[in-house]
Amino acid sequence: MTVQHDISLVVLAGILCAFGSWVTSRLYRHAGNRPTEHAIAWHLLTALTAGISIWGTHFVAMLGFRPSVPVNFDLPLTFASLLIAVAGCAVGIVFSASVKLRYASAIGGAILGLAISGMHYAGMIAYRVRGLVDWDRGYLVASILIAVVFSAVALTLGRRDGKWREYQMTGVLTLAIVSLHFTGMTAFRISPLDISGDYVNPEAFKMLALAIAGTAIVIVMGGLFSYAVENRTRMESIVELTAARNAAESASRAKSEFMSVLSHELRTPLTIVLGYAGILSQINSAQPKDAAGNPVQLHEGKVGVQAELYGQKIGTAANHLLTLINEILDYTSIELGDTKLTRTSFPVSDLLAATKDQFQVLAGEKSIRLHTECDDILVHADHRRLMQILINLVGNAVKFSGASDLHLKARRETDGFRIDVTDNGCGIDGAHIEMIFEAFQQIETADKRSSGGTGLGLAICRKLALAHGGDVTATSIVGEGTTFTLTLPESAIDGAVTSAATKVLGRALRNQKARPALPRAARSGVPGRGQTIVGG
Ligand code: ADP
Fold first, then answer.
1. Which of 109, 473, 483, 522 would be 152's cystine partner, CB 3.0–4.6 Å?
2. SS3 sequence, 213-229?
3. Quick check: CB of 442 below 6 Å from ligand 1?
4. Using 50, 70 and 90 to split pLDDT, how confident is the model at 450?
C-alpha cells in the first residue's frame, strides 16, 4: 500500500522536535546547577517541556502521515499518550538528577527513552485506520532500543561540563525522537480493507496539526521564558553582589589607608610627648639634657617629686599609646599589602633562644618557668617577623594565662615545621578560639581587661604567618592550658638542611634494615634526640 507524507507537516514536526529538544537541554542543564530546593521545580518544568514537545512532534507527524485509507484518532488514548510522555520524562529526568549513582544520568535517559517509546506506541494504538494493521517486530524492537540508547546518551551529555554539551544533547535527543518515530513507522504495516486509493486526509488534520504545534511551541516558549527571566535576575544579582563586594573592598582599603596615615601623624607628636615625659620623670634626680645634648634649665625649687611622678605616668600612658599606634600601623600596612618579607637563613634554635631571652625577666617576676626544645632546623624566613609572632604568643601567655610553665617547641614536619607555644594556664573557651584571631577582639573578663592590649596581636600573627605560606592556630582546654601553633611550609626551610635531613633519613632507613629497633624520631624523618636542643 502506498504511504505518503504531507511534507509541510513533517517539516513542522521536525522544527518542533529540534526546538523542543534545545529548550529541554537548556532547562535540564540549568536545573542541574540550581540549589537543591529549586532544582526539583526546574527538573519538572524540563520534563513538561520535553513531554509536550515530544508528543507534539509525534502527533503532528502522524497528522502528516497519509496512508491512502481513511484514518481516525481515539481521543482518550491519544490524551493518555500525552500523559505517558510527560510523566515518563518526569520520572527519567528526576531520577537522573536525584539518584546518587554513577550512571544515574544514563539510567534516567533510558527511562526517558522508554517513555518516548510508550508515548509513540500508545499514540499508534490510538491511530485508527480502515485496514489490517501488522507490526514488524524487528523494527519495533529496534525503534525502542534506538530511543533508549540515544536518550541515555543525551542526558549523560547534558550533565557534563563544556561549552558545546547543550548542543550535543539537543542533537542526540532530536535524533532519539526522530529515529524512534521513523523506525516505528517503518514497523507499522497497513493492508487496506477496500483499495479505493483516492483517500486524502481531511483539511481539518492540517488545522489540528497547526493548533497542536502552536500550543506545544507556546508551552515550550513558556519554559524558555522562565529560564530567561531567572537567568537575568541571577545575572543582575551577581552584578550587584560584585559591585557591593568591590565597594566593600575599596571602603576597607580606604579605611586602612586612613588608619595608616592617622597612625603616622599621631606618632610624631607622641614621640615629643614621650621625650618631655622622660625629662619630667627625672627632673628631681638628674640633670636632663635636650635633644642636642645641652643641659635643660630647671626650676628645682618649684618642681620636685610630684612632677617626677606625673612624668612617669605620662610616659607610661604615652608608651602604651605608641604601642597601640604601632600595632595599628603594622596591621594596616599588612592589610594594604605594603609588607615585604626579608628572608634570611638562621637556625630555629636562635629564634627560640632570643624569644626566651626577651621574657626571662618578666617570666621570673611572674614565677613562670620557660622551656625551649627544638629540632635542628635551618629556617629560611623573615627573622624579625617570626620573632614578632613568637614574642606576641609568649607575651600573651605571660600576660593572660597565669601559667607556671611555658614550653616553646620547634618540630620538623613532613611538609614544613611547626613551633608550639604551650602554657599550663587558664585556657581559652572553645567559643572564643577563632574569635581571638580577628582584629580588635579580646576575651572580656574583668581581670584580663586590666592586662591592656589592643586585640590586634593574634590577627597580626596570623597575617604574618599567612604571608609566609603558613598559619597560626590554637587549641585549648579551659583550666589546663593553651597551645598556639605556628606552622610554616617547606619553603620556609633552608634547602641545604632539607637535603641534609633527607640524607639523615636515608641513612636511618638503611640502618633500619640492619637494626630494626630505631628511635621513633629517626623513623618519622625527624632528627633524633641527639640533635634536639633542649633548654629550660
Ligand atoms: P592583645 O594581646 O592585644 O589583647 P591578642 O590578639 O594578642 O590581643 O589576644 C587576644 C586575646 O586572646 C587576649 O586579649 C586574651 O584574652 C586571649 N589570649 C591570648 N593568648 C592567651 C593565652 N595564652 N591564654 C589565655 N588567653 C589568651
1. 109
2. HHHHHHHHHHHHHHHHH
3. yes
4. very low
Q: Is the CB of 424 under 6 A from ligand 1?
A: no
- Residue 345: burial class (beta carbons within 10 Å; 0-12, 13-18, 19+): middle
Spatial contact of 26 and 230, defined as CB atoms under 8 Å apart: no
CA of 454 to the centre of ligand 1 (A): 9
DSSP code of residue 75: H
| Residue-wise DSSP of 157-211 | HHHS-STTHHHHHHHHHHHHHHHHHHHHHHHEEEEESS--------HHHHHHHHH
> DSSP code of 65?
E
Phi first, then psi: what are they for 464, rounded to 5°? -65, -40
Query: From ligand 1's centre to the CA of 161, what distance in Å?
Result: 48
Residue 523 to residues 80, 496, 507, 527, 533: CA-CA distances in angstroms?
74, 21, 11, 9, 19
**CB of 170 closer than 8 Å to CB of 21:** yes
**298 in contact with ligand 1, CB cutoff 6 A:** no
Beta bridge partners of 416: 413, 489
What residues does 483 pair with on adjacent strands?
422, 475
- Separation in Å, CA 167 to CA 2, 56, 128, 174, 391: 37, 21, 37, 10, 62
Q: Is 460 in the pocket of ligand 1 (CB under 6 A)?
A: no
Q: What is the pLDDT of residue 36?
A: 84
Contacts of 54 (CB under 8 A, 6+ apart): 17, 20, 85, 89, 116, 119, 177
Burial environment of residue 80 by CB neighbours within 10 A (0 to 12, 13 to 18, 19 or more): middle
Q: Is the pLDDT of residue 478 over 90?
A: yes
Helix 165-187 to helix 104-126 angle (10° resolution) is: 40
pTM over 0.70: no
**In this structure, are residues 109 and 46 in contact, taking their beta carbons and an 8 Å threshold?**
no
Question: In terms of DSSP bridges, do strands 378-381 and 416-423 run parallel, antiparallel, or are they unpaired?
Answer: unpaired
Cell of 457: 596581636
How many whole angstroms separate alpha carbon 354 and alpha carbon 370? Answer: 12
Tens of pLDDT along 296-316?
665 555 556 777 788 888 888
- SS percent in the chain: helix, strand, coil, step 5: 65, 15, 20
Whether 522 has a pLDDT exceeding 80, the answer reads no
The span from the CA of 18 to the CA of 479, in Å, is: 71
The secondary element (H helix, E strand) that includes residue 411 is strand 405-413
Q: Is the CB of residue 98 less than 8 Å from the CB of residue 155?
A: no
Rounded mean pLDDT, 129-135: 84
Q: Is the shortest distance between the CB of 423 and ligand 1 below 6 Å? A: yes
Q: pLDDT, tens digit, for every residue of 320-343?
A: 888 888 888 888 888 887 778 899
Q: Would you state the cell numbers that stand for residue 290, as one nine-digit string?
A: 635636650
pLDDT computed for residue 299 by the predictor? 53
